[in-house]
């Protein structure tokens, strides 16, 4: 009996290790989910009117061309989205305040927060930021992101909204529903969002953020650690789990056989 219990505990431990490795091994199907490859806005501080990543109605994010940007402002200087740096350096100040780094770890272990975030600052326009990925019919995908509002925009009169869409699934938040930062450098306002989507057809699907400023002056929203993964362990991990179960089963049968012979 003791032998059987020990064997069961050992199998549980191995399977637990397998499960944790499966989570850590999941690969982000999006490119540059933490915006570390994107070109940093060259004009921090008050001069944010030149901050848009494209300067036209639509285009790709500079330095990270997998991300496509559209802005409903037809002409002129865009203010919709910029790539901003976090931290306490004077060079990283926006509207005379620093941006908080993302401290969260939920989601994809391979998509770690760095020193850059996507910063939605539009007041009157609708801004879209997204990229496409390949999906397989019947496969379930997990997707998510971290979001925060900013200290400098906390008292702005108008609430902005952010919707993340993958196929028919959506995740949404508003600047008003995110925790209010307690200081310019506080990271307490970061919140993790995640959901799932099951593809009905094989082909290309779009992952898309839609930010709506509403009216001037709108509250800003930051995003970081954006990911899409398959919702099942990788084949190697599944095979390891099967091997563990097989070995445990063989050992158990041998133990039972010896017990029956002794009787």
Question: What does this 3D model show about the protein?
Answer:
With 263 residues, this protein is of the alpha+beta class. The chain folds into two domains: 26-232, Galactose-binding domain-like (Jelly Rolls, Sandwich), CATH 2.60.120; 233-263. 20% of the residues lie in helices and 32% in strands. The chain is built from two helices and 13 strands. The chain has helices at residues 2-25, 235-262; strands spanning 58-61, 64-71, 81-85, 93-94, 97-98, 116-120, 126-135, 140-148, 161-166, 169-174, 191-198, 203-212, 221-230. The strands form three sheets. It has a six-stranded antiparallel β-sheet with strand order 1-2-7-12-9-10, with no helix packed on it. A hairpin with a 2-residue loop joins strand 9 (161-166) and strand 10. It is globular and about 45 Å long. Mean pLDDT is 75; it is low at 2-24, 44-56 and 234-245.
In which order are the strands of the major sheet placed? 1-2-7-12-9-10
Order of helices and strands: HEEEEEEEEEEEEEH
CATH topology of the largest domain: Jelly Rolls
Principal-axis shape: globular
Query: What proportion of the residues form beta strands (DSSP E)?
Result: 25-35%
The overall average pLDDT, rounded, is 75
Low-confidence stretches: 2-24, 44-56, 234-245
Assign the CATH class of the largest domain. Mainly Beta
User: Mind summarizing the main beta sheet?
Assistant: 6 strands, antiparallel
Distance between the termini: 15 Å
How many β strands by DSSP? 13
**Rg calculated over all Cα atoms:** 24 Å
Number of domains: 2
Give the count of helical stretches.
2
Query: Which structural class do you get from the secondary structure elements?
Result: alpha+beta
What percent of residues adopt helix (DSSP H or I)? Answer: 10-25%
* CATH architecture title of the largest domain: Sandwich
- Per CATH, the superfamily of the largest domain is Galactose-binding domain-like
């Amino acid at each position: 009996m003791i032998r059987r219990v020990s064997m069961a505990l050992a199998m549980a431990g191995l399977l637990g290790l397998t499960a944790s490795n499966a989570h850590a091994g999941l690969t982000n199907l999006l490119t540059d989910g933490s915006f570390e490859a994107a070109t940093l806005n060259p004009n921090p501080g008050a001069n944010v009117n030149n901050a848009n990543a494209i300067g036209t109605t639509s285009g790709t994010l500079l330095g990270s061309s997998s991300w496509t940007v559209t802005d409903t402002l037809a002409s002129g200087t865009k203010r919709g989205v910029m790539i901003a740096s976090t931290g306490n350096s004077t060079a990283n100040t926006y509207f005379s305040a620093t941006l908080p780094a993302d401290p969260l770890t939920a989601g994809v272990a391979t998509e770690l927060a760095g020193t850059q975030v996507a910063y939605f600052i539009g007041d009157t326009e609708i801004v879209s930021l997204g990229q496409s990925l390949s999906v397989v019919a019947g496969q379930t995908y997990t997707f998510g992101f971290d979001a925060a509002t900013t200290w400098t925009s906390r008292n702005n009169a108008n609430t902005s909204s952010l919707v993340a869409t993958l196929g028919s699934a959506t995740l949404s938040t508003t600047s008003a529903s995110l925790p209010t930062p307690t200081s310019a450098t506080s990271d307490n306002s970061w919140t993790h969002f995640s959901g799932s989507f099951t593809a009905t057809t094989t082909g290309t699907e779009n992952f898309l953020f839609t930010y709506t400023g509403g009216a001037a002056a709108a509250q800003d929203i930051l995003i970081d650690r954006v990911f899409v993964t398959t919702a099942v362990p990788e084949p190697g991990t599944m095979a390891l789990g099967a091997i563990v179960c097989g070995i445990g089963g063989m050992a158990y049968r041998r133990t039972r056989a010896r017990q029956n012979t002794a009787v």
